[in-house]
Design goal:
The structure is a homodimer of 354-residue chains.
Chain A: H1 3-14, H2 17-23, H3 43-51, H4 54-59, H5 61-75, E1 80-81, H6 88-92, E2 97-100, E3 104-107, H7 125-128, H8 130-142, E4 147-152, H9 154-163, H10 171-179, H11 181-204, E5 209-213, H12 222-228, H13 230-238, E6 247-250, H14 258-261, E7 268-270, H15 277-284, E8 289-294, H16 303-315, E9 322-326, H17 336-348
Parallel strand pairs in A: 1-4, 4-5, 5-6, 6-7, 7-8, 8-9
Antiparallel strand pairs in A: 2-3
Helix pairs in contact in A: 5-8, 9-10, 9-11, 10-11, 11-13, 16-17
Chain lengths: 354, 354
């Protein structure tokens, strides 16, 4: 065996379960974590929130690291994910954003015309968000499991920016996408570059994987996604390819878009509970890991029903190239004890492909 | 030619464009109407609403008929649809429901256990809702186009009843569906029977077609839909089959459920903007008309873009068996002049199959 091969073997052995699964390599147990595992479902998070707003937490490294690590300690999950909000980098470059409790991010200066793009200058994490780097370094020093870096995708951020806040129809944003393709392209390119800058800095500071959240993309037809969203994501994921860290993409309700998602080549694709893992893998084609996809509402079912639903997902698991997760974020009313139990159930399962 | 054949020919000639399209028969022009065409997009509706709440309007036949006919007069659409709310029959049998502006239906006595089902007694339109029959008769006397009867589907109504109001996750309702299949079945059977009673009465009073709205069904996986929703819909649509009036089913975000929807044999299926008409027809199989599916946000685009988007839908139209509509309800901020223009664009189109 050459020394290079030994080195490869050694580094593979050392790679944590999460990273191996995202790379499509065999694992001893399926890795499991939960989207929104840090947050309102945990009493220890609600305790921290009594003294600080969401934005204040993200700006104070010791608090952000603390809430990021809370679910790791409590549930024994296989990954930490940076506690943040997708609008954090926008706020860091000076876009006037407020996160209103019960509403979401509200933007005082919505983007409606080319002149409004000025506010979206390049994001330079070292100077614009030193607390971001500090938070990641703190987490990586303390965490027993790898950290996943976190960013919002261009369409979803563009919707907030164009609408001026959360929207159910995304009417203004989609109308801009359909009517002003050049302005829209400039907007989403800038947002892609901001995500790239943020994720590269997060990996440089210690994150071992990244996930891009495209929360609102389920509102688009295939044609709309292909024309208005794919260029920005191709730019974003292309700029991350040399990083080495696996890149996951998740969009709620994006089951009809999987063939398009495969085109920009994320390492892994998050599937919500409406796309069976086996179907998702088949539609993506070879070379993609999948993440998901227990329906988050099953947490509210009695144990035998919960165990049955977890078993259904595990039966449909490919074993290799699967990170267990919910099909969407933890609902705030979830009982954290039930989440811990899900981790146990997944870890008891033999992926059968070691 | 037998006299029966002559009769058939005559009745077919007399059948309005909407009914012919829903039956899969050739039409001179594609029929077009808009979900939520009656309502907040029209200044004449907002005028009526100044003096009466939504529930009051549904209870006063002359007002309900007036707002139902407003979009027919203004836009020249090919159908009227009863102005109502899906919870109206529940309110009529005494369930304590309030429609809170900006929130939606709120139910004081949510269904959480078998004992809570008592409040869902049989709906007897003649005695429980004489205003409903009166409204339909008034509309049919005055309307130049056919009236579509209106009802809510069991899953969507069950979600309101179990949650006690609108919900984004439908967590309690879905947890009941997964955990207490017998209670859930009893609940959804009762709701199916209520819809049947309402729709049969509406057709008896003059409605020439019916549409069942299943607004929240897009939140379900195929397996969840098959086990928890299909039985109620099979019951509901089975009980309407002898009516003669075409039966349309629409559920937002139900693109992944089309193969299941075909099983209970609606006459027509509403497709939202995420499922191309040609794809929807292919997946449903032979014998189904389709309705849709212009993205409602295109109403906010400048005319050339709007015309292009309408043309795309028309290019994908099968000609026979297609009712033009939006892919979801009219957004309240829509300019009614633009809606009228869409009707003109559709009517200018030659379906090419007369």
């Amino acid at each position: 065996m050459t020394s290079a091969a030994v080195e490869t073997m050694r580094s593979e052995k050392l790679a944590p379960r999460l990273v191996r699964a995202l790379r499509g390599e065999p694992v001893d147990r399926l890795p499991v974590w939960f989207m929104r595992q840090a947050g309102r479902s945990l009493p220890e998070y609600r305790e921290v929130r009594k003294g600080a707003s969401l934005m204040e937490i993200t700006h104070r490294a010791e608090l952000a690291a603390e809430v990021t690590l809370q679910p790791v300690r409590r549930h024994g999950v296989d990954a930490a994910i940076l506690f943040s909000d997708i609008v954090t980098p926008l706020e860091a470059i000076g876009v006037p954003i407020e996160i209103k409790p019960g509403v979401g991010p509200v933007i005082a200066t919505p983007v409606r015309a080319a002149g409004d793009l000025k506010q979206l200058r390049a994001f330079e994490p070292q100077s614009d968000a030193p607390w971001l780097i500090e938070t990641i370094e703190l987490i990586c020093r303390e965490s027993p499991v790898p950290l996943i870096g976190f960013a919002g995708a261009p369409f979803t951020l563009a919707s907030y920016l164009v609408e001026g806040g959360p929207s159910r129809s995304h009417a203004r944003a989609k109308a801009m996408m359909l009517s002003e393709p050049q302005l829209w392209r400039e907007l989403t390119d800038r947002l892609a570059d901001i995500a790239v800058a943020s994720l590269r800095a997060q990996v440089a500071a210690g994150a071992q994987a990244v996930q891009v959240f495209d929360s609102w993309v389920g509102s688009l037809s295939v044609a709309q996604y292909r024309e208005g969203v794919l260029p920005g994501l191709t730019r974003l994921f292309g700029e991350l390819r040399d990083l080495g860290a696996p890149r996951t993409y998740f969009g709620l309700g994006s089951g009809h878009l999987l063939e398009e998602i495969a085109r920009f080549e994320p390492s892994a694709v998050g599937l919500d509970w409406r796309v069976p893992l086996s179907e998702g893998r088949a539609r993506l084609g070879a070379g993609f890991a999948v993440q998901g996809n227990l329906d988050p509402v099953t947490v509210f079912c009695p144990e035998p029903v919960l165990a049955r639903e977890v078993a259904k997902v595990l039966e449909d698991s490919p074993g290799i190239g699967h990170v267990f997760n919910l099909g969407h974020g933890v609902l705030p009313e979830s009982d954290p004890g039930v989440l811990t139990h899900i981790v146990e159930l997944v870890h008891q399962h033999d992926p059968g492909v070691q």
